[in-house]
Design goal:
177 residues, mainly alpha, 6 helices, globular
């Protein structure tokens, strides 16, 4: 008899192991925020800010360094396929670019920095992380199954909402989302 509960638990563990560097990259910019804005205070052709005041170089690079470091540590403990450094570079970078892309879309929709766009805010960074790691999977450099990808998309929204609420309670964020 097959134990499906164990299969699901292992799948969730694999998904968390895969996406954890992206989670860390997405969560930590708030700790280092401030400084020069990524969009340099400029407007896009629609006369709206490109990203807004919440997206800074310091936050972006701090998030990327933390995500990269977490990826390397995971690689040491769990072992990644052929190129752990490449994976560790790309997954947090993709996560942060996914978040920037969502900020760009939110400015076009007149949602202010810190304002919520349900679902997009919970998976923007995951989509970026997946997009940046898919080429590694297609080239056989990194093993990523569709089941792990779908599991990441399913488990991330509640985790994201819960951790953001915790950051709000710790006064690290202005909004609980």
């Amino acid at each position: 008899m097959v134990d499906h509960k164990m299969d699901i638990a292992l799948l969730i563990a694999e998904a968390l192991k895969f996406i954890f560097p992206a989670y860390c990259a997405n969560a930590t910019p708030v700790l280092a925020g401030g400084g020069k804005k990524i969009d340099l205070g400029k407007n896009f052709v629609d006369n709206k800010r490109v990203f807004g005041n919440n997206k800074t170089f310091r936050g972006f690079f701090f998030g990327w360094i933390v995500g990269f470091s977490v990826g390397l540590v995971e690689g040491l403990f769990f072992g990644f396929d052929k190129y752990p450094v490449l994976f560790s570079l790309l997954i947090p970078f993709g996560a942060l670019l996914g978040d920037l892309f969502a900020a760009f879309i939110k400015r076009r929709l007149d949602i202010p920095p810190g304002g919520m766009l349900l679902v997009v805010d919970q998976i923007d960074f995951v989509m970026g992380a997946l997009v940046f790691t898919l080429p590694l999977a297609f080239m056989g450099i990194f093993a990523l199954t569709w089941q792990v990808g779908v599991t990441v998309l399913i488990i991330t929204p509640p985790i994201h909402l819960l951790t953001n609420f915790g950051a709000y309670k710790l006064k690290l964020k202005k909004h609980p989302w």
